[in-house]
Amino acid sequence: MAIDDRSPAILVRELRKTYAVPEREPGLRAALGSLVRRRTRQVEAVAGISFHVSPGEIVGFLGPNGAGKTTTLKVLSGLLHPTAGEVRSLGHVPWQRDPAFLRRMTLIMGQRNQLAWDIPVIDSFELNRAIFGVPRDEYRQRLTELTDLLELGELMRKPVRNLSLGERMKCEFAGSLLHRPEVLFLDEPTIGLDVTMQRRIRAFIAEYNSRTGATTLLTSHYMADVEALCRRVVVIHHGTLLYDGDLTGLVARFSPHKSITIDLEDGGEGLGERIPALVGPPEWIVSHAEGRLTLRVPRSETARLTTRLLANLPVRDVIVDEPPIDEIIDLVFAGRAGPAEVPPA
Amino acid sequence: MSGRAPGSLMEIYRSKFRSEIAVQFAYRGALAIWLLGLLLEPVIYLVVWTTVAASQGGAVGGFTAGEFAAYFAILMVVNQLTFTWHFHEMEWRIRQGFFSPLLLRPVHPVHNDIAENLTFKLLTFTAVVPAAIVLLVAFRASLQPSLVDVLAFIPALALAMVLRFLVEWTLALAAFWLTKVSAINQAYYVLMLFLSGQVAPLALLPPIVQTLASLLPFRWMVAFPVETLQGRLSPSEILTGIGAQIVWIMLAWGLLQVGWRAGVKRYSAVGA
């Protein structure tokens, strides 16, 4: 892994987090029994992961439910004490929750509301301004900027409880960024939003990053978020690190295949026997029907085979493609899937 | 960026005041009902005790009907200014995960609660004082405090507010360890009812209960300012009382610090 000469914005070394989860059998007897003796089981949510993030980077933090993503983000933002390991966010030990650190970062959780429920959004913003000690002129300037970028306009005068989920999320973003944090931890920031709103939030995150150079660590189940925003991804599963590198590398590593789709002239009539011979290994053929031939071919063979087919078949159209990233991620997790042990949310 | 400019804590309070007032006005209906309840409680005790006094030839344990009226009218004001709701609030926050946003702010969450508390008190105070005056008149209260009593009442009341807030906030921290602090809340509430002089003036209770009330913080949280304004205490008793308040405040403050640190440590160990 390339070492950045600047000191990393986020540093995680051998991070471990173990939860003690109370455990008991179902039923009344077990319930009474647990009054006397509580049994707990140790669940390792994060089992020794290491990575670092350079200033200004946007990194996608991927893994299935229960992989330890949220736990890691909570450790990094100071909400959780780790069981072991070394962590620095902006040079601070996060769980000491030094106000100087808290004023420089933010954690936005797609499923948690941080704005006051009953008062107009703008009043919550004003409160955040005071809490984070933002000077008034800077506040006004940032507010204008965020209002424009997120098109908040009318929303600001409404109480939060009267906003739709998407509107609320936009306001959460604005409220969490008024103090211009240098590090953003985003936990599923687009969850539950419609496609248009997802795209808006995504564009906003990219814009914020390019304007302020804020370091961003983002988890999402929507691969579109990750593809649009993150050149680098960190993949964890069962609390261990599976992959750390750029997104294209992930594809190359976990999907050594490409797909080739060929449409044949005249529905490919009379070519039935020639095709298997041209292609070679029969397992490369995924399907062949109604003039369309679909192949799944090792990366290294793709160019050679495509050339051969183009030269020998009446080809009308050809598409050479990476399998969809969702599929790859599925593949990655399926390959290592075991009984999922989910820490308390 | 780092290092908070002096006076900015004041700014947080000012902002919080404004937003809290907005919240309270959003729920004016609930506020009105709450005020009605607040008024009803002392009226019930008042009716009971004035009836008892009348049936016993005008006085019980040195309290005439008029003195009962004064006691419960002042008690209502003191109770309104000192009560807190942090048992419920803390439990709800921790169970629902609303505690995390507070932890991510660069200010101690206690400031949030102090500001909420003061705003609510300020708002309801304007309704409670007229209500108390109505009670004083309607039940023909007898109240002739000396100037010293009135002057002593002010710090006694202020310290009672601080003390009760600190004690109840600290006890509410139990929510970090127990998923249900309601049980503690219930036990505390019953003790409070008797030992802080809310059901009856402490002077009417058995000596052992009176001693207990004075040794524990309860008397100093509610009954003491009421007794002061009623002119039932000698100057030396007033000074002793204020001393007891200060000692308890320091103790509670220390406990709050310790409890807070341990609580947050636990919260962040088991998962937020």
Account of the 3D structure:
- The complex is a heterodimer of chains A (345) and B (272).
- Chain A starts with 9 loop residues before the first strand and ends in a 9-residue tail after the last helix.
- The model of chain A is unreliable at 1-5 and 336-345 (pLDDT under 50).
- Chain A has 2 domains: 10-16 and 47-252, Rossmann fold (3-Layer(aba) Sandwich), CATH 3.40.50.300; 257-321, Alpha-Beta Plaits, CATH 3.30.70.
- Chain A is globular and about 75 Å long.
- With 345 residues, chain A is α/β, with parallel strands linked by helices.
- Chain A has helices at residues 28-36, 69-77, 99-102, 121-131, 136-150, 165-177, 195-212, 223-229, 247-254, 274-279, 302-312, 325-336, and strands spanning 10-23, 39-53, 58-62, 84-89, 105-109, 183-187, 215-219, 232-237, 240-246, 257-264, 285-289, 292-298, 315-321.
- A 6-stranded mixed beta sheet of chain A has the order 5-6-7-3-8-9, with helices on both faces. In chain A, strands 11-12-10-13 form a 4-stranded antiparallel beta sheet, with helices on one face. A 3-stranded antiparallel beta sheet of chain A has the order 2-1-4.
- Chain A contains 12 helices and 13 strands.
- The longest helix of chain A has 18 residues, at 195-212.
- In chain A, helix 4 runs parallel beside helix 6 and helix 5 (136-150) runs antiparallel to helix 6 (165-177).
- Chain B has one domain (8-270).
- In chain B, strands 1-2 form a two-stranded antiparallel ribbon.
- In chain B, strand 1 and strand 2 form a beta hairpin.
- Chain B is built from 12 helices and 2 strands, in the order H-H-E-E-H-H-H-H-H-H-H-H-H-H.
- Chain B has helices spanning 8-26, 28-55, 65-82, 86-96, 99-103, 109-138, 147-172, 182-195, 207-215, 218-221, 223-229, 235-270; strands at 59-60, 63-64.
- The mean pLDDT of chain B is 89.
- Chain B starts with 7 loop residues before the first helix and ends with a helix.
- By secondary structure, chain B is mainly alpha-helical.
